[in-house]
User: What shape does this take?
Amino acid sequence: MTKKAFITGITGQDGSYLAELLLSKGYEVHGLIRRASTFNTSRIDHLYVDPHNPDAKLFLHYGDLSDGARLTTLLAEIKPDEVYNLAAQSHVRVSFDEPEHTGDTTGVGSMRMLEAVRLAGIDTRFYQASSSEMFGATPPPQDEDTPFYPRSPYGAAKVYSYWVTKNYREAYGMFAVNGILFNHESPRRGETFVTRKITRAAARIKAGLQDELWLGNLDSVRDWGYAAEYVEGMWRMLQADEPDDFVLATGVGLTVRDFLETTFSHIGLNWQDYVKFDERYLRPTEVDALIGDASKAEQKLGWKATVDGYGLAKLMVEADLESLGFEGKPWHDKVKLASWSVA
Ligand code: NDP
Ligand code: GDR
Assistant: This one.
């Protein structure tokens, strides 16, 4: 029997890698997509097969985490074996500008998904995209037993989602798990997150297209891993015998400055010649240091990261350099442009 998966956030960084992984495992994949006035499928266009084709395995459906009735109807129709709730307003700095929207999407949106599973009366396994931002001010190393102390509307919304996921597990016996993932990046990372902002700018500087890079706090420490490896961990959490919560991390911490230094020196540049400070990129409250301990995932799921922040900086700047002819679509070398039929 072909397994069916439903992914919210399929157009995002993680959603695109997860869709690839599940398709490669023979799943039929259904994704939730927001209606927008411009195409927002660039990260998954390379997976496109015309849905009229009998070999099509990937299907998109309009919907939004703010619309609980739609989520319930969709899940009742599709009856997925696995649900991955990856959709969120995922930018921490933006969550200070849009706290209410972030609470509604990143927090209450998860509850709407859980409630949709319950109301649809389907037997499905549920993955919640929880975050190391929940640990916030609690110092590293952080693992599954570390207390939460969120430092942003985003972090607080993720704490709500974490607990409501756990509550549905305990209250309704649902196979519902939290993957507590530390920062993970890739050439598909959104351009306003610091790693991609740095690697993209470095490549453009090297190519003579840009001559400065404005950044905020360079002292914060992050544990950056590779997104393509982290979606494998998500999948493994849903294949376990019992529902449980897991940290995924590399265990290696770098400052933003370290990431800058690694990126620029890898392509023969000196970052001090280009980087300028802009206080607009500071957060009202910062998360100073996140370094994860993923021993539980290694022991129980056999999952271990192999790429750390130093490796990522090199991999990402090389990808950005390669893609300069394809501004904004760096992973598009093998892509056929598609026009999705989602209605
Ligand atoms: P992205 O920002 O790349 O993708 C977010 C996705 O959510 C997009 O597909 C976006 O759609 C969708 N989305 C946003 N709002 C809504 C909404 N109201 N209804 C439906 N869909 C919506 O995030 P990532 O792929 O990096 O992260 C995936 C998840 O994991 C997020 O929940 C994030 O908070 C969490 N996380 C991420 C980490 C990381 O380091 N990447 C670490 C820990 C947790 P659209 O394309 O239309 O904008
Ligand atoms: P983060 O990622 O907040 O950790 O959340 P981000 O890349 O935005 O920031 C990391 C660190 O870099 C500092 N920084 C800057 N950040 C941005 N975006 N832009 C800048 O110009 C800049 N200058 C310095 C920040 O202050 C911060 O300390 C990510 C998201 O993917 C979340 O969804 C996810 O939950 C967490 O990772 C784990």
Notes: Residues 8-9, 11-15, 32, 34, 36, 40, 64-66, 86-90, 105, 129, 131, 181, 183-184, 190 surround NDP (ligand 1) (CB under 6 Å).
